[in-house]
Amino acid sequence: MSLETGRSAVLLLAHGTPDMLGEMAEYLSKVTGGQAMPQEVVKELQHRYAQIGLQESPGLEPPPLTKWTMVQAHMLEHALDAGKVYVGMRNWHPYIADVVAQMRLDGVTHIKAVCLAPQNSRTSVGLYRRAVHAAAKGMEVEFVAGWAESPLLAEAFAEKLQPVWTEACAEVGQRVPVLFTAHSVPCRTIMTGEASVAGARPGTPVQDSPDPYPVEAKRTAQLVAERMTPAGFGDKDWYFAFQSQGMSGGPWIGPTVEDTLKAIKAEGHVGVVMQPVGFLCDHVEILYDIDIAFRQTANELGLKLWRAESLNDSPVLVEALVEVVSGRYKATVDEVMVPA
Ligand SMILES: C=CC1=C(C)c2cc3[nH]c(cc4nc(cc5[nH]c(cc1n2)c(C)c5CCC(=O)O)C(CCC(=O)O)=C4C)c(C)c3C=C
Ligand SMILES: [Fe+2]
Ligand SMILES: [Fe+2]
């Protein structure tokens, strides 16, 4: 397939992750928009990243988030066969600003930006949008704000969930519930009116409409559940929680994974299969938060925890991205604009 215009190019937007442990403090200040994190938070995150393989010096391979994001971009480029697919990261190299500058040098005039975070949120997608608009002055920007209900995205997740769920049920000899998750966000960021800025950094605009994020996250989960077999896989088979509440203060949205695991145990289950449906590849919040921390919590409760493999190099995910980029899937797209 080919893109409509010669000077149009796709820009995939991703979170970014440090390449070595010593970069953690600088990385965290990018994540928080310039606020320095307390030393104990920096140390705790270094400890978590070390457990998933990050070292004192850059390893032979990039960290998982960088590696898989680049793989996804290459696969998409191949599938589109319409020129280069660029990757810009918000919090680490290659930064969005640098990549957009390169696109400009390469003669790109129209950017089709897609976030590798399918559910639209102010704290993730909103910040990607701001970074692209700041960098792309005078260029046309077509910004895909959400693709949470893409049937092929749901298909890609279901393809990873089905085998591990079947295996888990067979191992314990009974139906094992699925716990779908997405990243939590601070409560104030999904509010409207003055409540949306209470405790926020100065300059945060008052929001006049609710953040679609919590609904979109659960909608993705529901669409995945609908694709599971046997056909009787239904509402009683799955739960939803928001994971990885952050280390900056104030309340974050729930239910938390910890509370939901307790509820699952109280229902009489002996195991649980987790699938994070807000993340498209491996990174610390899967490899540490789920595989190490939640697995330990589950085990302490007497639950065995399985996790669906991440999408990573899933060809079905790439098909979903092709549909989003080509417009065959009607994603939530901002009006095309030229940032001044
Ligand atoms: C929908 C919201 C968010 C998504 C998706 C998300 C993905 C994501 N986050 C990290 C790593 C970190 N995030 C951190 C803080 C943080 N994350 C979000 C929201 C989403 N993150 C918020 C609102 C915040 C708080 C930011 C602030 O200004 O304080 C941090 C810092 C430590 C912490 O607070 O936990 C890290 C590290 C990754 C790798 C990722 C997906 C790829
Ligand atoms: Fe985050
Ligand atoms: Fe996080």
From TrEMBL:
GO MF term set: ferrochelatase activity; metal ion binding
Keywords: Cytoplasm, Heme biosynthesis, Iron, Lyase, Metal-binding, Porphyrin biosynthesis
Role according to the record: Catalyzes the ferrous insertion into protoporphyrin IX.
Annotated compartments: Cytoplasm
Protein family per UniProt: Belongs to the ferrochelatase family.
Protein known as: Ferrochelatase
Pathway it works in: Porphyrin-containing compound metabolism; protoheme biosynthesis; protoheme from protoporphyrin-IX: step 1/1
PANTHER family associated with the record: FERROCHELATASE, FERROCHELATASE, MITOCHONDRIAL
Enzyme Commission identifier(s): 4.98.1.1
Gene3D superfamilies: 3.40.50.1400
Main location class: cytoplasm
